[in-house]
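Now for our specimen.

. . .
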Amino acid sequence: MENDQDSSHHILNALNNDCIGEILDRLNSVIDLLNASKVCQRFQQCAGDCFRSKYSMVRINSDVEPFGKMPHVQMQRVLAAFGHLISSIGWAAYRDRQRDDEIFQSIVRYCRKTLKCLEVSKYDFTLNEQHNFEALENLGIYMSQIRIVSLDVPLKILHVNYYMELDENPWFLRAFPHLEELYFDSVYALSDDMLTELFSLNPQLQRLEIINCMGMTSNLFISIGRYVQNLRYLRIRTLRLHENSEDKTHHKNIIAPFGHLRNLKNLILEENSELSFEVPFEIAAENSLPIETLEFTAMPPKNSDVIVPTLQTLKHLHLYYGNISIDMLKKFIKNHIALEKIILEFHLNATETIKSATKYLSFIKRENYDNKLFELKYSMFDGKIEAHEFYTILKLAENRANVTIKIHKGQICVPKDVRRANQKWLNIL
């Protein structure tokens, strides 16, 4: 009779790697997986495959497994065994300098050759020949100061978020030879001059997003049109374009530099100052821009006789605060045969919300448009929606359009279960 050790050995040999992988996949913690990897070479290989499929993206100092609040000693053991299999790390520093330094050193030591995405929050560090990530393609920096001595990495995506102050020479003012996408969010000290220098060093950019950076002016558009003409995607949010001007010529002069972006497919001017409705269309048509998505805050035309050029490539139109007339909307849809989605967004009180929704939904019903074409979004600031008003909107919206009403101040006199049952067409948040 075989002894226990021989029997166990025989059983393991009878199992193929898929069976062992299924067993390891049922382990509840990454520490159990780590211990299993030490049984033998086959277990090590199967544990590695299991780790790669379950934990290639990890969060440190969060409630997300496997690392979460894991003690550093255990984390170091896991990184030593599986760090080369991790492709993405998001790390919020503990604000304990010694502990944070140890964690960063472990990340560099065990992940530097294969890590593709790194997001760091509230930790200042240096990138040099000793502290470098050879495969890094995506870098996100949140409320952190970094010093770049050398950066020999194939970086394609850079996120810079939440800076109240910046040095006179910020760390990101440099050439990134492979950079394709650049994101700034709430970098309050960011200036037009800084971005002009950055754009001049990185003309190859294809995607640019600037969100809530209060130091910007419309001069930014001149720099964009001059230096980053390869852009395919441009999003700018909350930028004061002008001081309440209704002059169409002035509006056109402001965004005229976008005419140089001959590859631009997505132009999103989100919650900025109003632009005359026809102006973005004129800029795109005059320069043959292949625009597919257009979002902006529209100043409604004063009459329906205004000529809006047709953009043959346009698929998605999103208007903020855009009370466009029914006649203008009907003509617009007729001319844009590639159109797949129209989103109209409003900030109104309860009475105006009901009136607006009824007007547009009645038009959609009358014209019998495809039920995927329209989406109406309302932010309601006061008043209340009675039950009969709710059902009036629902009846018009059902199988015709999606309506969302976000209530900031006010109330809706409809039971929650009724609202949940009908949220596909009328969603109250």
Notes: The first strand starts at residue 57 and ends at 60.
